[in-house]
Amino acid sequence: MIEFLVFAFSLPNLFLFINLILFILLAVKTKQKTHKIITVYLLVIVGVQFYSAWVAFNGNYNLHISHYYFVFQLLLLGYFYHTICVNNLQKKIIKYSILVCLLILGIQYAIIPEIYFKFNNLEIFLTCYLLIIFTLFHFYNLLSEKKIFLYFNMGVFIYLFGSTVLFLLGNLSVVIDLNAINFDINRILFFIFHLFITMEWIQLYFNKKKATLKK
Amino acid sequence: MEYENSEIVSAVIYIFTAFFLMSLAILIFVYYSRKKIIQQEIVNRDMQIEHQKKLLKAEILSQENERNRISQDLHDDISSGLNVVSLNCHLLKSPGLTETEHHQLTDTILTLTNKVLENARRIAHDLLPPIIDKFGLDAGIKELVEELNKTKKVKITYNNSLDLNTLEVSKHLHIFRILQELINNSMRHGKATEIKIEMGFRHPMRILEYTDNGIGFDIEKHENQKGLGMKNIESRVAYLDSTYTISSEINKGVEVKIQF
Predict the structure, then answer these.
(1) pLDDT at residue A86 above 70?
(2) Does pLDDT of A24 surpass 90?
(3) Distance from A120 to chain B by nearest Cα, in Å?
(4) Does A134 have pLDDT greater than 90?
(5) Would you put residue B259 in left (φ > 0), alpha (ψ -120 to 50) or beta?
(6) B232 touching chain A per CB within 8 A
(7) Where is pLDDT greater, at B189 or B32?
């Protein structure tokens, strides 16, 4: 129990909590779809974090929760990028690639069901890679648009890039003990990710309505 | 042991593929971004050229308007007045005038010429307030503010902590005209009742701050940017070699800052 509480109130988790509260406030205030999606995404992360920690600290196996995490992450962030995307071709790519990805994973689980109890490398790779492509779409669109969700996008990009490699190494823990270092790097990445989310919140919340024309 | 090996192989293959595909994605991204940036630059340059053309047109148009106004003023106030004067002069030449008639005619001619003179002075004043020439910009603005305050439609406060005599004389008129245009806009479109004009020095530039309490406008709306008045201000600012910022919000008035 104490171990669980120490985990729950660690710095990255507090950060996550703060961000969740900030985005709930923002979503209530602006009632914008994109803000709501980010809020739900943060809520899912909080749920996954605490449920998996709770399961682990009770001495049970928790790897299967990672599957829900990756799939929900893809669905929610995919939906988010689909919403903010203005390019029709990109919208279609986002929609169909997510569908194809889910189909492939469904087939994989049907053929090899035992993969449910370890890290599924294909799942990690597909879900994260697609999201990285979506972030690149957004970076591309930002070249000519107003800088909206820039920080959030940067955070997602950096976090996914790093965490993909870390998670792909996850199954190696049966061979060599990477857990300690893996865990630390992941915490740092997670911390950076949430720093970006907070910056995004600041941008969104204090967005000046007053327009200025400069010549 | 075999199981462990296959895990290592699988991880290596996945990590390799992931890195390979991610770098590929980034390369494609860079390629398309470059293309897009170049296109954007071309569009921007075209817009700049278009903008300059519009400025030029606006300048020509306002010059034409000004000429029209002058010709009308000359026609209405000077020519017609002088016409009546010449008519009266002809009457003077007609024979058999009594002393009183003679007197009346010269009186009319005198009052008419005085009136024409007054009008000519007014037209000249409108074209270029002589006070700017004689006493400088500061006095000119003070006079303008005083005249407008007398109308009671607006309350203008003017503060100046600059010594404008160090400013090149050619710039005085531009600043004066910009202020005239701004005040005109505030009163006509902004329905402002209070206007504040402040001039001061903020290192390394002189700054003119103009604020009103009018209804403001939406700067992002295109039709608000293409008015003749705004264009005029812009080209004058360009003559001053200065920069300006306009900020406004609906119902929050207008704030203009000019650095020169």
Answers:
(1) yes
(2) yes
(3) 10
(4) yes
(5) beta
(6) no
(7) B32
CA distance A112 to chain B (A): 15
ipTM above 0.90, yes or no: no
| pLDDT greater than 80 at residue A210 | no
Q: What is the dihedral of CA A83, A86, A92, A95, to 10 degrees?
A: -20
pLDDT of A11 reads: 80
| Domain coverage including residue A126 | 2-214
Q: In this structure, are residues A42 and A200 in contact, taking their beta carbons and an 8 Å threshold?
A: no
pTM of the model: 0.66
Q: Average per-residue pLDDT in chain B?
A: 86
User: Mean pLDDT across chain A, nearest whole number?
Assistant: 86
pLDDT digits (tens, 9 = 90+) for B174-214: 888 889 888 988 888 888 889 999 998 888 888 899 999 88
Instruction: Show Cβ contacts of residue B246 under 8 Å, excluding neighbours closer than 6 positions.
Output: A212, A213, B219, B254, B255, B256
pLDDT, mean of residues B222-250: 79
In contact, A34 and A50? CB cutoff 8 Å: no
In a 3-state reduction of DSSP, which class is residue B180?
helix
The whole-angstrom separation of Cα A187 and Cα A10 is: 10
Query: Quick check: helix, strand or coil at residue B258?
Result: strand
Token digits of residue B97: 């005038």
Partners of B17 on chain A (C-beta within 8 Å) are 125
Residues from chain B contacting residue A210 (CB–CB below 8 Å): 247-249, 252
What is the number of domains present in chain A? 1
Give residues 14 to 33 of B whose Cβ lies within 8 Å of A. 14-15, 17-19, 21-22, 25-26, 29, 32-33
Q: Which residues pair with B196 in a beta bridge?
A: B157, B211
